[in-house]
Structures are given as structure tokens and as C-alpha cells.
Amino acid sequence: MMAHFMAKFRHAEEFMRMPLHLEECREQLEEVLEEWILFRVHKNLDLPVIDGIELIIKEIV
Which Pfam families has this protein been placed in (predicted)? Predict the structure, then answer.
């Protein structure tokens, strides 16, 4: 019996992967999180607090 892993990112509902290896699952989740953060920063959208971590983007003049 093969083990399967599932990765979901609740703030990006369209993301769901089911890779065969745990490390592949971690890599895909990290990639999606990075892209999601960059997209929200680019669009000047707030970033929600995730697991007690709050990222604050400041404009530099």
C-alpha cells in the first residue's frame, strides 16, 4: 500500500495537491505560499495572520 499526502492551503482554495512523497508535498506548498504572498503584495491586499505570524508590508518612500 502506497502512502499519499495531501496539501491544502486554506487561504488559496484553488490549491490542492496529492503528491506521492512528503518532501514533494512540502515543496509544492512552499511554492504556492510564496506566490500567494507576492500576488497579494503586488495587489496591495492585506495578508491574514497565519498561525500567529503577521506579515506587515510597509511602503518605502
Answer: UPF0150
- Average pLDDT of the chain is 78
Instruction: Report pTM.
Output: 0.65
Scanning the structure block, which residue is given the C-alpha cell 490549491?
A: 15
- How many residues make up the chain in this entry? 61
CA angle 48, 53, 33 (to 5 degrees): 65
Contact, 38 vs 58, CB < 8 A? no
